[in-house]
Amino acid sequence: MFNICNSFISVFYFLLRSRLLNAGMLFFLLLILLLISGGVTLAQTLTDTGAAMSIGTEMDAGGAQSATKQAPRGGAIQKISEANAQRNAELNNAATPADGENAPAGNASAENIAGGNAAVPVQKSSGDILKDGWWGPGSYISPIKLPIYIFIFLIWVGCASWMNSDQERLKKESREALNFLYLMLYVVLGTVFFFVPIFWVAFPATLLLCIVPVMIYVVKRNKPLPPHEKVLTGEHLYYLYAVAMNKIGVKIKVKKRLSYQIGPSIEMESAGKNIDPKILQGRLIVARNAPGYNLFRENIFDALTSNATSMIFDFTPERTLIRHQVDGVWLDMAPFPRVIEKGKNKDVFEEMLESAKLLIGVNPNDRRSRQTGTFIAVLGGKKKKKYEAEFTSQGTKTGEAVMIQFTASKVPFKNLGELGMRPEIQTKLLEQINASQGIFIVSAPPANGLRSSMDVFIRVCDRFTRDVVNVEDAVLSTEAIENVVLASYDSSKGETPMTVLPDVLFKEPHALIVRDMFSLETLQRCCNEVDMQRLFLTTARAKDGVEAIFRFLSTKIPPQLFISRLSGVINQRLIRKLCPVCKEPYQPAPQLLQQLGLRPDQVKEFYRTRTPLPEPEEKKRGVCPNCNGIGYRGRTALFELLILSDSVRELILSNPNPALIRQQFTKEGQTGFLYEGIHLLVKGETTVEEFSRVMKM
After folding, report:
1. CATH code, 416-695
2. Which residue, of 16, 359, 423, 640, is most buried by count of CB atoms within 10 Å of its CB?
3. Which of 472, 415, 429, 423 lies closest to 569, judged by CA?
4. pTM assigned to the model
5. What would the pLDDT profile of 122-136 be if each residue is shown by its tens digit?
6. CATH code, residues 260-408
7. Are 516 and 539 in contact (CB under 8 A)?
C-alpha cells in the first residue's frame, strides 16, 4: 500500500512540474469514480445475497408456507423472491421435454430445481472471468485484475517521470507539449481500453499504450545524440542488466571505464614532428591525470560535432567566452562566469587550459608568452574521424586567448562535383591540369579550402599514364595519394623545395606539384623546366585569380619568363549553403534582379533563412534541428577559372594594372564569381546576403 501511495504522489509531482495538474486531477477523479461505482455495485450485491441467505434459513426452519407468511411484501426480500420465482419458472420450462418427450437422463427434476438449491447463484469459472475485460461478475472490478491494472499504471508513472526528467536534462523546448500528449493518450485511450469487454485485448492494448510512445521518443531522442548519451542501446541494456544482477548477488563483469573515457566518444593524442613516441605518450598520461582533461575533451567534441573548423577560448578575470567558427563565420557560445571552488585557486576552465598545455608539451603556468603545439582528436562512432589540431595561446591585456584550428586527416571530397564545380568548369580545368606543359595556379583566400581542393585536383588529374611527383614540406604533410610520388623537405631545418627539386627533376617526371613556390630560385627553375615538357601545379593565397598572378610577379621574377609559361589560374571562395529544412521562398524585387542582370521571367523565386516569428510563436516552433537555428548548413565553392590568352599576356607585360586585367578577362567571357553566385541563387542554394558577403572578401 505504501508503494502504491508513493507512486500516486510521484504522478502528482510529475503532473505539477509539467503544468498538467488540472488534466491529471480529471483523470484521477474519473478513476476514483470508477472504483467507487464498482464498490457500490459490489456492496449492493453482497446485501442482496445476504437477504437471500436469510430467506433460505427461514424456509428450512418453518417450511415454505411459513416463510411466505413471514416474509413482508416489498423491499429487497420481495424483489429476491420475485426474481427467484421467475428464475424457477424458466428452469422448469428448460427442464420440460419438448413435444411431450421424456426428459433426458441425467437432467435435474423440476422439483429439485424449484427447491432450495434454486437460490444458489451459478458460479463462473476463472476463464469466464477473464472474458469480462477489466471487470468481474456483478459489474465490479475484478480483484484478480485490479493489481495487474495498477501495475501497468505504475509502468506509465515511471515512463512519464523518466521522459519528463530526461527532457529537462536535455533542455527540450517541446517538453511540456510531449508531456501533455503522453498524458492525454493515457487518459483517453486508457479509458477506452478500460471498457473493452475482452481481457486479452484490453490488457496488451493498455500495456502498449504505456510503452510504444516511450519507444518512439527514445528513437527520436537518440538520433542526434552521441553514442555515450543514447539509451536502450545494446551496450546500455547490458549495463542495466549487469547492475541489476549485481544488486541481487549475481556478479557480472562490466568493462570499467577510466576517468578519461567517461563522457563523449572522443580520444586525444599528443602529436609533434620528430618527437620521440615515448615523450608523446608521457605527455598524454600527464594530461589525462589533470583535473580539467575531461572538460577539454567535451569542448573539443562539441566543436567538431558542430562542424567547427576553429574555436577560440577568451579567458578574463570575470568569465570565459567560447567561440566556434562554423562554415567560415564566428559564432559566440554562452559565456561561462569564472567560479573558483572552495579549496582551489583556479576555475574549471583554467584547469582545462592547463590539461591542454600539458598535452602539447608546453609550460601550463606560463600565461603570457606565445605557445604553440599540435594534438590529434579522434571522434568515435561507426566511422572514426581523425583531426589534427593546431593549438596557439597568447597572453592578452585582460587574460589569455587560445585558438585551436582543426584539419581533417582525410579530405571529405572525392570529385570536382562534390566541391560544387559545374560540369562546364570541370571540363576546362581537366584540360589545364592534364596538359603536357605549363604552370597552373590553384588559389583561394585564407580559410577557404585551398588544401582540400588541391588534393581533389591531384586525385582527378591523370596520374596513371604519366609520372606525378608531389614536392611537400614535411611540417605540413598531406594525405598520401595513390600513384603520386612524395618528395619531402623539412622547413623546420631550414630546407626549401630546392633541397629536393634537383634530384626529382633528374628523374624527368611529367608533372610536379610544388605548393607555395614563392622562392625566386625555385620559381625560376620551374619556369625553365616547363620547356622540357613538364607541367607544374602550385598554390597561392589570394582573393581572386588576378591577385594570385601578381603574388608570383612580386618575387621579382622576370615577367616575360613567368607569364609566357603561365597557362591559367583558378580561384575559389567558399559560400554557405541554405539549410534545406527551414529555408523560405520569396519573390525578389525587380531592382535586385536588374542589378544581377536577370529578367523577371528568368527567376520565379529566391530563398532566404526563415523569418523570425513573435516570441511566443517562435518558441512554439522551436529551433531547426538541422542547422541549430543558424539558417545555413555546410558550404560549397564558387570558382573563377581564368585561362591566359595572348591578349591578356600582352596586357600584363605592357600595363600590369589588376583592374584593367580583370576587365579584359570579362570582355573575353570569363565572368568568374558573379555568374557562379547567380547560378546558386537561382537554384535556391544560398541567399543574396551570403553572396554579397562572399563577394566583399
Report:
1. 3.40.50.300
2. 359
3. 429
4. 0.63
5. 454 545 545 677 776
6. 3.30.450.90
7. yes
